[in-house]
Write a structure and sequence with these properties.
mainly beta, Immunoglobulin-like, 5-stranded antiparallel beta sheet, 2 helices, 8 strands, elongated
Length: 141
């Protein structure tokens, strides 16, 4: 199996960028600043999560990237039970090109707290070159 040196370099750089240590900053310095990660491919990663009065959990994710061969989103609806987060339902959507949308509904059991976690992946030449994640605020139903 021959692996392109460019692909190895891209995967290595993505790994390095994802694992850079975070430097703590005094909170008073950040009040008026918006701190966002700098991505090479990802331009937008938008997510929504809500639960209706009838228990219908609605999740949605939208991932847009430049110069990507494939984009993929995997989302997990989780329930807090017995001291930990448990997956209730998961979904994956992928598309060739620049963007993908995931939008799903699932009815949840009352009396618990829920959250939505989404992971976005960018592929070039069959390799993940960039990724990101999102954890929503919890909702109790």
């Amino acid at each position: 199996m021959v692996i392109n040196k460019k692909c190895i370099f891209i995967v290595f750089m993505a790994f390095v960028l994802v694992n850079l240590p975070l430097v703590p900053v005094d909170a008073t310095e950040c009040e008026s600043e918006i701190i966002t990660p700098k991505f090479s491919y990802i331009r937008n990663f938008l997510n929504e999560f809500q639960i209706s009065d009838t228990g219908k959990a609605s999740v949605s994710s939208y991932l847009y990237a430049e110069n990507a061969d494939e984009v993929r989103v995997t989302g997990y609806l989780q329930q807090y039970k017995n001291g930990g987060w448990n997956n209730v339902k998961s979904w994956t959507e992928s598309a060739t090109g620049k963007n993908v949308t995931l939008g799903k509904d699932w009815y949840v059991e009352s009396g618990y707290t829920y959250r939505y976690i989404a992971y976005g992946y960018i592929y070039v030449d069959g390799y993940v070159v960039e990724s990101t994640s999102y954890v929503c605020d919890t909702v109790t139903y």
